[in-house]
Structure formats: C-alpha cells, structure tokens
Amino acid sequence: MLLNCYHIELVEAGCDEAGRGCLAGPVSAAAVILPKDFYLEGLDDSKKLTHQQREKLRPIIEKEALAWAVAFVDHEEIDQINILNASFLAMHRAIEKLMLIPQHLVIDGNRFKKYADIPHCCIVKGDGKYLNIAAASILAKTHRDEYMANLHQDYPHYNWKQNKGYPTIEHRNAVVEIGLSPFHRKTFNVSDPQLTLSFQEEV
C-alpha cells in the first residue's frame, strides 16, 4: 500500500519525470501536492498502469490535488545540458509553477539538484511507495504522451502516437531509414545497424 506522505506534518510535493530514455521529444516532470487524507483507488507507479488507467486517474488527480504542475525541457535543451540535468530542470520548472509553495520535496530516484531552499529526499522507486510521487508520475507521463501524440500528426512515419518517442525497434529503424526529425535528440545516437543507443548522462 502506498503511503500518503514522507513528512505528513509538512506541505509536501512529490516529483517525478517521464521521457528520460526517449529518442525524441521533451522530458517532462510533474510536481503534486495532495491533501493529507488523500486516497485514490488504483493510484500507483505509472509504469504499472495501462494507458487507460492513467488517463482515468489523471483528471481526478488534477481536480483533487491541492496544487499540481507539469513542465517540459525540450530536445534542444536536452542536447545542450544532457538528459540528467534536463530531468532536474524539468522538475525545478514544475515546482516553480506550483500555486502552493511546498515545505518539503520527495523526488523519485536517487539524485536531485536542490531547488531553492526547500529540503528534499530522494526515494528510489518512490513512485511505488508514496502517493504524491505516484500522482506526479501519472501526470508527467500522460502530459508527455499527449504531447507526442500531437507531434505524431506531423511525423507519422516514426509512430510516436504508439511509441511516444521511446527507442522501439520500429522507431530505431525509421531513424536509420528516414533520418532524424527536427524533434529528435541529437545526442541520443542510433549509431549502427545493430541499432545500439548511446547518450551522455553527466552532472
């Protein structure tokens, strides 16, 4: 069973990102502050849920959260600062957009760059442990999926509506055969006929 908060006595925001391992499109992040007594049947790590389940939970989270925000870092920024820093930046932007200032942050994963003077904790697999991180994982995922589905209309040959920019065999083959779109990350290279994926992830 997921817990409501890490620090129940504080106004706490859960943060998570989506799209870090994609070949194309932005990385997204969400920050969510839930009520202390919040409970939502089926809320869990977005990776454990189907597309339909995530889409069903999204409007409930957005309606019932005390505050929520989603932010993006685009493919060009990712190429400039690398994907790890882009993930941190996306979370910073989401926190900055919150209508309620959190007193504490819980971050999914094991690394984070401090935001302002707000204390934080990194929780490995936190999206399967805390409701606010799970809610953030769903918002980050669904908003990014929606963005990629819209891009698909102009670039249907990469099938982003289905793969959302992730490096499926079909997507990698399309890059090899057609080349990169304007929305591909140039530092994420499909570098040979074996379709190996390489990218830099440094602080």
TrEMBL record:
<dbReference type="InterPro" id="IPR024567">
    <property type="entry name" value="RNase_HII/HIII_dom"/>
</dbReference>
<keyword id="KW-0378">Hydrolase</keyword>
<protein>
    <recommendedName>
        <fullName>Ribonuclease HII</fullName>
        <ecNumber>3.1.26.4</ecNumber>
    </recommendedName>
</protein>
<dbReference type="GO" id="GO:0004523">
    <property type="term" value="F:RNA-DNA hybrid ribonuclease activity"/>
</dbReference>
<dbReference type="InterPro" id="IPR022898">
    <property type="entry name" value="RNase_HII"/>
</dbReference>
<feature type="binding site">
    <location>
        <position position="17"/>
    </location>
    <ligand>
        <name>a divalent metal cation</name>
    </ligand>
</feature>
<dbReference type="GO" id="GO:0030145">
    <property type="term" value="F:manganese ion binding"/>
</dbReference>
<comment type="function">
    <text>Endonuclease that specifically degrades the RNA of RNA-DNA hybrids.</text>
</comment>
<feature type="binding site">
    <location>
        <position position="16"/>
    </location>
    <ligand>
        <name>a divalent metal cation</name>
    </ligand>
</feature>
<keyword id="KW-0255">Endonuclease</keyword>
<keyword id="KW-0464">Manganese</keyword>
<comment type="similarity">
    <text>Belongs to the RNase HII family.</text>
</comment>
<dbReference type="GO" id="GO:0005737">
    <property type="term" value="C:cytoplasm"/>
</dbReference>
<dbReference type="GO" id="GO:0006298">
    <property type="term" value="P:mismatch repair"/>
</dbReference>
<dbReference type="GO" id="GO:0032299">
    <property type="term" value="C:ribonuclease H2 complex"/>
</dbReference>
<feature type="binding site">
    <location>
        <position position="108"/>
    </location>
    <ligand>
        <name>a divalent metal cation</name>
    </ligand>
</feature>
<dbReference type="GO" id="GO:0043137">
    <property type="term" value="P:DNA replication, removal of RNA primer"/>
</dbReference>
<dbReference type="GO" id="GO:0003723">
    <property type="term" value="F:RNA binding"/>
</dbReference>
<dbReference type="Pfam" id="PF01351">
    <property type="entry name" value="RNase_HII"/>
</dbReference>
<dbReference type="InterPro" id="IPR012337">
    <property type="entry name" value="RNaseH-like_sf"/>
</dbReference>
<dbReference type="InterPro" id="IPR036397">
    <property type="entry name" value="RNaseH_sf"/>
</dbReference>
<keyword id="KW-0963">Cytoplasm</keyword>
<keyword id="KW-0540">Nuclease</keyword>
<dbReference type="InterPro" id="IPR001352">
    <property type="entry name" value="RNase_HII/HIII"/>
</dbReference>
<keyword id="KW-0479">Metal-binding</keyword>
<feature type="domain" description="RNase H type-2">
    <location>
        <begin position="10"/>
        <end position="203"/>
    </location>
</feature>
